[in-house]
Amino acid sequence: MSNNLDLSLVCMESLLEVPSTLSKPKKRWHLAFAAIYCSRALYSLLNHPVSNNKKRSKTLPTSPPSFVILDVKPQHGFSNFDQHSLTQIVKHKSLTQLLELGDVENGIHGAVEDVTRRRKAFGSNAYRKPPTKSFFYFVVEAIKDVTILILVACATLSLGFGIKQQGPKEGWYDGGSILVAVFLVISVSAVSNFRQNRQFDKLSKVSDNIQVDVVRDGRRQQISIFEVVVGDVVCLKIGDQVPADGLFLAGHSLQVDESSMTGESDHVEVNTSLNPFLFSGTKVADGYARMVVTSVGMNTTWGEMMSTISRDTNEQTPLQARLNKLTSSIGKVGLAVASLVLLVLLVRYFTGHTKDENGNQEFHGSLTKADDVVNAVVRIIAVAVTIVVVAIPEGLPLAVTLTLAYSMKRMMAEQAMVRRLSACETMGSATTICTDKTGTLTLNQMKVTKFWLGQDPIREDASSSIATNVLKLIQQGVALNTSGSINMATSGSRYEFSGSPTEKAILSWVVLELNMDMEELKQTCTILRVEAFNSEKKRSGVALRSKADNKVHVHWKGAAEMILAMCSTYYDASGSMRDLDHVERTTFEQIIQGMAASSLRCIAFAHSQLPEEEHEIREATQKLKEDSLTLIGFVGIKDPCRPGVRKAVEDCQYAGVNVKMITGDNIFTARAIATECGILRPDQDMNNEAVVEGEVFRQYTPEERTEKVDKIRVMARSSPFDKLLMVQCLKQKGHVVAVTGDGANDAPALKAADIGLSMGIQGTEVAKESSDIIILDDNFASVATVLRWGRCVYNNIQKFIQFQLTVNVAALVINFVAAVSAGEVPLTAVQLLWVNLIMDTLGALALATEQPTKELMEKPPMGRTEPLISNIMWRNLLAQALYQIAVLLTLQFKGESIFGVSEKVKDTLIFNTFVLCQVFNEFNARKLEKKNVFQGLHKNKLFLGIIGITIILQVVMVEFLKKFADTERLDWGQWGACIGIAAASWPLGWFVKCIPVSDKPFKLSKVVGISLQRYRLLFLSLGPHKCNV
């Protein structure tokens, strides 16, 4: 006992002597380690008999244990652990507390009771988010509109004066009706925005629901990030997001991007010895590992931070920004017209040129009561403000919101989840799609179909013919150089393979065809170093020491031509080693090309045994041997093309969108798959620059890249940098580029593209966060669907713009001309607010929810700078607006004599005809170019429903709300006349669409300038004497 105690004291003394050359952080780590070791040594000596101590090693430990335990027997509960101590271990990187924990390999039991108990004791893996915006919030936002506030003020004053003059029974109509109309406008706007906000919240929950690989009861399985509990063992790979705070258990070359937590861009190495701490919300930049969860949800640093952040659903898309500019420009015209109307009406009132309902002069100078003057002025201001309300097309941003929200919902149903609103509309302008091959164009269901040993193909059932030494190397190279794993199925009759599709295919082949026992092989070797696979290196390697003979072996696996370049010898079918000369190398290259031409992904295996001296040298440089290897053999992996992918590619090409395939496969496999998918024609080959390798593209000069990029259809053996380079080059040439990606290294290209499309199944969390849209089924056909919906969004917005501007122009001109010439406006404030409601909300709902049609994919893509209002739209809207102006002004000046009615009935006829014209014009707006506006009408039930509701409400307004709407009842003949006049817009629309228009776009600024100039000239030509002022 005394000898052991002396030895331990010597060890402790040596540990406590801290070298003066160490830096401060390293001194602290040294002292922490010393304290841990000393306390454990003393505890061991006091609690174990001498006989046991003799068996203990006399060497100092070099690192903390590889595993920690957080699994607790059900009968003991969680008394040994509290959430605070577990949180502090990771938060403060406390190795002292860490070493007091033990060992876990198989994860938690995973039973429902176990998970529930852990969730109750340590919390769930969810964050407290700020409360969602209530309906009242959106009501307040709608009320904040300046024009609404002015209208409410005018209505309140009118209500007060009306009740004072005419009593409560009759005096509330004018002011009260405006308030009711304003209430309707506010309600509809608030309901629409509230629903949109709720929809974004739902999409946010779906987006946050990440799938995580965990080990429970010894089995690897996928669960939702929200189901992760303390004690779970989580498997991490490149591109994953760390789902909770935890500790490193085992793994290799793990580097983590902690920039989201610390702001530092340098990757942090995580290992057993110095830094075993992992933080929720960080991303895996390289390597792979297993971690044990110590804190979840609000107990993590990330949870605390995320609880204070709310997702901004008020993102303004580029189209909304352009529409806001358009709204501002039109609003200026409306403000000018309203100001002129206000001036004319005030002048006419104060000069005694206006009369009341009984035909008496309203203003008599000082004899007129102050209440009457204020009431009249308020009424005039209300009319002017209402003109502004109608003139400003506030429905445009609402239409965009409705269209985007509707399209997002429908796209979600068609396997595309939108993360950024702007992507919906930008996708409609896409001119080029750069797509991955694996999983996007292909099914990602891989299977080994060919195996070559040396220069001889091996039949699938001929594992017995492979030399024993080579078979052992193949099994060793696969079992120990993989990020995948094997589990027995619950039935016990078959295996379950996990990992990437390529890894699963190789593991399946070696286990089922070559009878490999993975667990047994792991017991025979010790892994020394691992180089994990990534898309730049396109290979992975492992250095291991055999326990049988203590020799060091290096195994490599990866892209066939890259592994072949690292070899100087090879094994033949008999297991003998041969030199790899130029002739032999050429033969192997032909074998690789032959497999690639059959659309097979070719993977090679290589091996080398290292002398101990060389291993020590390489261990110092932390690099595996990469030359003078021995080639073991090749496998050919088949990944069939997706059904329907050729049709989807052809649809994109027919729509004027170029499809380019960018893949890491070799040039022959890439060409074969691209031809099968329809990206390449059979006559296109490497000679006409349609197919190029990433390295060649990289070495082009900027001028050469710019010249050749449009011709390229396939880029093989590309790195993520090559993809980024192509995206940048295409954008410089004016293309609108959509890019698909799934790996962490694809993030720069996804961010640089106009539309980043990540894969929902194979995509890493880094790729998803960098993308705008997530393709949930990894299918290229879904990319074509996104393209179609993008065009539909843009097209629907254009339909609504045409519809609304027609109403704006007609309403402005009619009210302005009537006010200037006759001193009165035919449409009252309530009537104009009703028209505004039809335009802004019901019209937006009807036209913004049209579904994509085949015609959309028959047009070329819309350019970045193409104007919102095309020449075709100008032609349509000006024709309809001029027709409405001509008809309604005729009714204004000649309506009484034509129909033999009173002025009140005439004004009702104008109001009714105006509204019905908009109803009929909604049908015209459905098709901007097609003459048949009824095509597909039966499919849009919402459109028909809104038209029906509008007509019913209009009948109610005219026939039953006389006091409220200031209308008179119309007889059947008058209704027939109104409908006939409005229905004439259909043949007019058909005829106008026969008129060809120039492709050269109008400029809105010129149109607005010309309009303002015309109004000014019109006002000057009429003069005060023509206005009876």
UniProtKB/TrEMBL annotation:
Limits of the Cation-transporting P-type ATPase C-terminal domain: 825-994
Keywords: Acetylation, ATP-binding, Calcium, Calcium transport, Calmodulin-binding, Ion transport, Magnesium, Membrane, Metal-binding, Nucleotide-binding, Translocase, Transmembrane, Transmembrane helix, Transport
E.C. code: 7.2.2.10
Pfam families, per the entry: Cation_ATPase, Cation_ATPase_C, Cation_ATPase_N, E1-E2_ATPase
Any one GO CC term of the record: plasma membrane
Domain of life: Eukaryota
UniProt-recorded Gene Ontology molecular function terms: ATP binding; ATP hydrolysis activity; calmodulin binding; metal ion binding; P-type calcium transporter activity
Transmembrane segments: 29-46, 135-163, 175-194, 330-350, 376-406, 805-823, 829-849, 942-960, 972-992
Record InterPro entries: ATPase_P-typ_cation-transptr_C, ATPase_P-typ_cation-transptr_N, ATPase_P-typ_cyto_dom_N, ATPase_P-typ_P_site, ATPase_P-typ_TM_dom_sf, ATPase_P-typ_transduc_dom_A_sf, ATPase_P-type_domA, HAD-like_sf
The reaction(s) this protein catalyses: Ca(2+)(in) + ATP + H2O = Ca(2+)(out) + ADP + phosphate + H(+)
Topology term for the membrane: Multi-pass membrane protein
Ranges of residues in domain P-type ATPase A: 211-308
Residue ranges of every copy of the Cation-transporting P-type ATPase N-terminal domain listed in the record: 100-158
Subcellular location: Membrane
Entry's family note: Belongs to the cation transport ATPase (P-type) (TC 3.A.3) family. Type IIB subfamily.
Function as written in the Swiss-Prot or TrEMBL entry: This magnesium-dependent enzyme catalyzes the hydrolysis of ATP coupled with the translocation of calcium from the cytosol out of the cell or into organelles.
Name of the protein in question: Calcium-transporting ATPase
Species of origin: Vitis rotundifolia (Muscadine grape)
